[in-house]
Amino acid sequence: MGRLGTLTALYVTQYLGIGFITVGLTAILRDGGTSLDTLALLQVVGLIWPVKFLWAPVLDRYGSRHRGHYRSWLLVLQAALVLTLLALLPFSRPADRLGPVIAICAAFVFFSATQDIAADAVAVRLLVASDRGTGNGIQVAASYLGNLLGGGACVLVYDRFGWAAAVGLLAALTAVGLLVVWRFREPERTDRVVRIGAAYRALVSVFGQPGCRWWTFGVVPLVYVGAGMAYALVTPALVDAGWSLGRIGVVTGVVTSVPAIAAGLVAGLGIGRFGRAGVLVAGGVTLALSTVALLPLMTGRAPLGGTVAALCFFLAAYTVANVVLYTVNMDYSRPGSGGTDFTVLSSFGLVCSFVAASLGLAAAARFGYPAVALASLGLVAAGVVVGVAHQRRFPPSASALRPTLPATDLLVR
């Protein structure tokens, strides 16, 4: 298995449990009579992801020379993911034991977020600039595939074979990542930071690179807030249009994931051929058109076929834009502090997404769905214009185009 195969396994397995917790377990608990207020507590554990930058420097500073710096972390974390899922096995009626179940889920999210830091650091070290589009396309597509399997397939297994079969399947699929890490041979690290203080200074020094502040505080908020505001309106608009919760869950959690997975992979390959700016323009134009296609839903008219098509179109476009944002974040991630750099840059995007959801819903209450959707379109358009200007002035450096590691070190045993 090569570099991209290794990264695919790592990213898919980290999202399997996340998809199960946020989608599948939520449905199972609701079916067991859990109140919506209590279910909201389960979603709060997701806030661990945006703050993972707080401990990312620890992974950059400490690691085993013998087992591989980040591989040593991945061995522990991937095993922790499997064991945490297995810890759910005794709770065959999770609605009756919510306290322990939520605690276990919080532990899983923590291990998953930390595994993501290590996986991103490995990606920063292994991928040259020409491969980063493909690598980040895989990462974004993997999140949807993980949600599809964890939030969709495992729920179907639960419905037919019960709790133990669903959790067992989830743990078995996650264990594939442990096998991949076990066989992975990480190149020896020669750029290890000496002091933990130096590792934490990377949280700030990353923004000192040419154009990084322009990208992070200009392009990223415009695109994420614009697209996030529109997406936050989808579920309440579907409810207002009379859709059942079951139909909403299937369409938004399963059906739209398929084109999103394909879009992530295509966008990743497209970046290698057309560049970051070119794919950003394609994603922005598609987001604008799909937002217009969602306007009938925003006005209360939601025929099944047209609405599903518009949602698939929108999420695919959002995925394309997301791949570009992740790729440029990786361009700004330095090999010596890759876990910290990529984590702090991507965490800011997550914060923007949370803010966007709140802003979108609050604005919709005052101005209505269509007005907010059109405003989001304007923000995305501005983000694309600023992003293209950024890429023209700050393209990936020539040094980043060349591999810094011998080709033989990029293999697995």
Q: What's a quick, concise take on this entry?
A:
The protein is mostly helical and 413 residues long.
Structure write-up:
Helix 1 (3-31) packs antiparallel against helix 2 (36-44) and helix 4 (69-86) packs antiparallel against helix 7 (163-183). Mean pLDDT is 86; it is low at 398-413. It is globular and about 60 Å long. The protein is mostly helical. The chain has helices at 3-31, 36-44, 56-61, 69-86, 98-126, 129-161, 163-183, 196-205, 212-232, 234-240, 245-255, 257-293, 295-298, 304-331, 338-367, 369-393.
Q: Sketch the topology as an H/E string, one letter per element.
A: HHHHHHHHHHHHHHHH
Percentage of residues in helical conformation = over 70%
| SS-based class | mainly alpha
* Cα end-to-end separation: 8 Å
What form results from the Cα inertia axes?
globular
Secondary structure tally, helices: 16
Which band does the percent of strand residues land in?
under 5%
- Mean model confidence by pLDDT: 86
Main location: membrane
Protein name: MFS transporter
Transmembrane segments: 7-28, 40-58, 70-89, 101-128, 140-158, 164-182, 214-234, 246-271, 278-298, 304-328, 340-361, 367-389
Membrane topology: Multi-pass membrane protein
